Amino acid sequence: MYENRHHPGLSRTGFRNRPIRHVAIMVALVDVSLLASVVSYCVLEVMSWVDTTLKASTIIEGLDPVQL
Questions:
Q1: Where are the alpha helices (DSSP H) in 11-63?
Q2: Do the domain assignments include residue 37?
Q3: CA–CA dist 58, 6 (Å, integer)
Q4: Could you say which of 7, 45, 65, 67 would form a disulfide bridge with 3 (CB–CB 3.0 to 4.6 Å)?
Q5: Rounded CA gap, 28 and 47, in Å?
């Protein structure tokens, strides 16, 4: 994934795009996990999308679930 010391360094655009790509992958993973949590809450507990999004996001943040 990264170049070693025997390869030339990255260009400026490559150096700039690497952290952007990492952040995009991280945001996609968080979005997929939030979507899976919201859908499972909607299926298992009949609640509105707003309530399930609140519960799922507090659990993903590492907080205790909200009692509704």
A1: 12-44, 49-61
A2: yes
A3: 46
A4: 7
A5: 25
Task: Quote the number of domains for the chain.
Answer: 1
Spatial distance between the Cα atoms of 45 and 40, rounded to a whole number of angstroms: 8
What size, in residues, is the chain?
Answer: 68
The reply to whether 3 falls in a domain is: no
Cα–Cα dist 53/11, whole Å: 41
In a domain, 38, yes or no: yes
Q: How many CB atoms lie within 10 A of CB 18?
A: 13
Question: For the chain (length 68 residues), average pLDDT per consecutive 10?
Answer: 82 91 95 92 87 88 77
Distance CA 51, CA 57 (A): 10
pTM above the 0.85 mark?
no
What per-residue confidence (pLDDT) applies to 26? Answer: 95
